[in-house]
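Regression test attached.
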Amino acid sequence: MALEQLFVVHDPATIAAVIVEPVTGSGGVYPPPVGYLQRLRELCTQHGILLIFDEVITGFSRVGAPFAAQAFGVTPDLMSCAKGMTNGAVPMGGVVVGNRVYEAFMQGSANVIELFHGYTYSAHPLACAAGLATLDVHEELGLAARVQAIAPVWEAALHALRDAPHVVDVRNVGLLGAVDLAPRPGAAGARAQAVHTACFEAGVLVRNSGDTLVLSPPLVISEAQIGEMAHSIRTALQHIA
Ligand SMILES: Cc1ncc(COP(=O)(O)O)c(C=O)c1O
């Protein structure tokens, strides 16, 4: 209802596109409420608005399917992707479009470039080679299925931190996770920064964003490594103020 109101308030006729991360990533790993993406799709379709998924974090098996669009069963009109596309080894980004958008670009005369849009490094051979090699590895190792299989271990390890000092919330989806800490009075972000430093010294790289630990491990992480990560976070939380 609130979502529908937003469309009404802004007049759907003035909205060209809606862009969302299917799972909010750097903002703190917030999985979408049940049915939210489906409803967004319905409203966009109803009003002729393009739906864009930013799959820069969620794409390439991070949430247990090749793309979050598949994991949540919602098909956007466009998807942006990067990061996992080359396993982060070489800079590369891309936009995947559905037939409707593709066909719109194919209406011009035959002798004109369909989408006159390029960068110095568009389709760079090195980046394309890294991208193709990444796809091969995804296929060979069955990474999407692997993420699905290990996700329950990841979930259990993270949620076991619920009783550790300072922890106020834990979220997870696929191989993404977040642990919210209570901030130190008057020093927002300092506590999670201290956890980052303690874990780093123990050989585990944990990223903090404000007072949230934002976790996005390699897709090949083992059960033992998940245990090691959870142990070092717990140890850090027990030793910092
Ligand atoms: C969800 C999301 N979208 C887009 C970007 C930007 O992507 P890029 O740095 O590849 O342009 C980032 C972070 O870098 C991101 O986390």
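Expected vs. actual: identical. Residues 125-141 form the longest helix (17 residues).
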